[in-house]
Amino acid sequence: MPSLHPKPNIPAIDGLRAVAVLSVIVFHADFLSALPGGFTGVDIFFVISGYVISRSLSAHAHLSFPAFLMEFYRRRCLRIVPALLLVLLVCSLLSTMFVPQAWLSIQNDRTGLAAFFGLSNFVLAWNTDTYFSPSTLLNPYTHTWTLAVEEQFYLVFPFICFIWLRYRQYSRLAWALLPLLTLASLAFSALQTRDNPLEAFYLLPSRFWELAAGAILFQLTATGRFTLHSTATSRAVLLAGFALVTSGLFLADKNQFPFPWALLTVCGTLLIITALAQKTDDHFLPLRLLQSAPVVYIGRLSYSLYLWHWPVLVFLRWTTGLEQLTVQLAYPLIVMALAAASYHWVETPLRDGHSLFQRRAWITIASCLAAIGLGWSGARWVSENPQVLSLSQTRDTYTWFSRRLPQRSVDEPAQNPPLQGRQLFVIGDSHAAAYRTMLSLASRQLGFRVWEYERGGCTVVSLMAPDPQGACAQAREKALSDIEARAKPGDIVFLASRRMPELAGRDWVRSEEDALGEALSELTSEQTEGARIAAEAVLTRLMAAKVRVLINAPMPLFKAPPYRCSDWFNRMNPICTPGFTIAREHIEQLRTTQMTLLDHLTGQYPMLLVWDPLPLLCPGATCSAYDDDKPLFRDADHLSGHGNRILAPSFTQTLLNGWKNAS
After folding, report:
1. Domains along the chain with CATH numbers
2. Left (φ > 0), alpha (ψ -120 to 50) or beta: where does 624 sit?
3. By 3-state DSSP, what share of the chain in percent is helix, strand and coil, each rounded to 5?
4. Could you give the angle at which helices 41-58 and 261-277 cross, rounded to 10 degrees?
């Protein structure tokens, strides 16, 4: 069998790792938008991983296949698991202590628990947000998707590599297998980027080609099939590689990723590694920089730097905010200190030790699996019992959050027996879900059944604009069809959605007048006409079902989210600066168009009832998100549990009136 001749250790590859991790950190910190394509540092890592893993596997080609696999997974467990478990457990504790238990924290917990098993990329891919969206920016586990992709790659690649190592001199198929899979993955990546960009970004099938490219490069260079024969050629290849990688760091378009823009970074990284794997001129400045002691050290810290940089950023964003200069200066120091501690006290001792635990593959693997299981169990318990450790006022879920309450006991008599058997159908966006406590209280009191059809971001009869299409239209159609099948004459359908322009996120500090004008400008006559057409389509359909329709008038909205600003450790966050009050006259301005449309619709559809919670939530000249010291709203527009209880008597009476008139 022809021998392999890989270069045993290439310090400059650690330098390239430093380039990759620093690019990602600068991008995520959003420092002066210095590297708009800094996220491509992840693609540099992928190519390096494919190359280095192949080199590592080739050193054990003499082993039998079972021993080959066991040795590979022994080393991967020692390399990946200890530091990852430490970060996941620390993040689990800090999340519970400092992150308010809102809808974002639920998504965070799911991502973190999946990360224990290398599955967080699936959670993120099947979420409705992109890698660049606000919810991922507040998830301390978002960055673990890259580790998940690599871990999944490790499940299949050793088999492919073993075939190549054993049969490359006998079979062309052994040489063709990995290139064919790489081309298939690249083609799939191109299709997915167009048709399903979330899965293209997060999942292995559309990323496999990046890791495989590094592996193919190893196969070519280690067998001498691809060699640079002169120093000048090596220098040119190295410079060309840097030019492509640099272009990706500045030019990559996140909306067309990974295909085609990842090609730029992958090809550039391949050229750089090709030059580094050859006999090169150590006096060449770019190479000297990559091999310099500080850069190589950062490269060796790169795994720990990557693990820690994102959670630190997220927890600072959740608490103090990132706008203050002191926080910006402290951030890199905190990350560097944590990464160095993790590398020297966790990574290195466990990876390079010579105990029985570290030398015996089956003991190492079994111990790692047990540690993963125990860590996951602990993190799950913490996520399911946040009130035990939380330092936030929002741990009082009774006050802060709307929850579906237990159904009324069958032995408990209803206060209005004639209403037993009646049904209330609730359809709308996340604001429909924010009414759950109120709906439960009314249901328990009157004895009717509630059917809920909620989909976040999918308003139904918004009164501001045409109702959303696409997946929202499909969900709306499914809900309406189900209502038509279940409803009996006289039942009530409650259309519950946000019907005011959002106020949070606008520049209220610079100019309240401009921010208000910006919100008002969204209520154009064209949009209102579209809203009228959409409303009439829904109401006409429900009228044919012989049901009554209840619609909530626009409620007050606020400039800042109370749950993000409720505690000593987050009140200084700049997101809280706009405050939690707004003049009622501004709310009336913002809902004038919608109220006019409601008047038109009630005149056209006699079965339409309007319930207006504004007088209860805002009885004076100033609307506040708080009722004394209790929140009426959990965030800038969703009701709190306390707000639900304030509105429950009014809502219950409105339902009673509606059913009495229907009798």
Report:
1. 11-62+98-321 (no CATH), 418-662 (3.40.50.1110)
2. beta
3. 65, 5, 30
4. 40
CA dihedral 500, 506, 508, 511 (to 10 degrees): -110
Tokens of 304: 């720990």
**Cβ within 8 Å of residue 485, ≥6 positions away:** none
Distance CA 486, CA 354 (A): 68
Closest to 25 measured CA to CA, from 297, 285, 328 = 328
Whether 310 contacts 108, CB under 8 Å: no
Per-residue burial over 205-221, b if 16 or more Cβ lie within 10 Å, else e, is: ebbbbbbbbbbbbbbbb
What residues have CB less than 8 Å from 105, skipping those under 6 apart?
95, 99, 386
What single-letter DSSP state applies at residue 554?
Answer: P
Neighbours of 547 (CB within 10 A): 21
Report pLDDT digits (tens) over 490-543: 899 999 999 999 999 899 988 889 999 999 999 999 999 999 999 999 999 999
Extract the tokens encoding 189.
Answer: 């990546």
Angle ∠(161,164,170) on CA atoms, nearest 5: 165
pTM confidence score? 0.88
- Taking the CA atoms of 363, 368, 211 and 205 in sequence, report the sign of the dihedral they define: positive
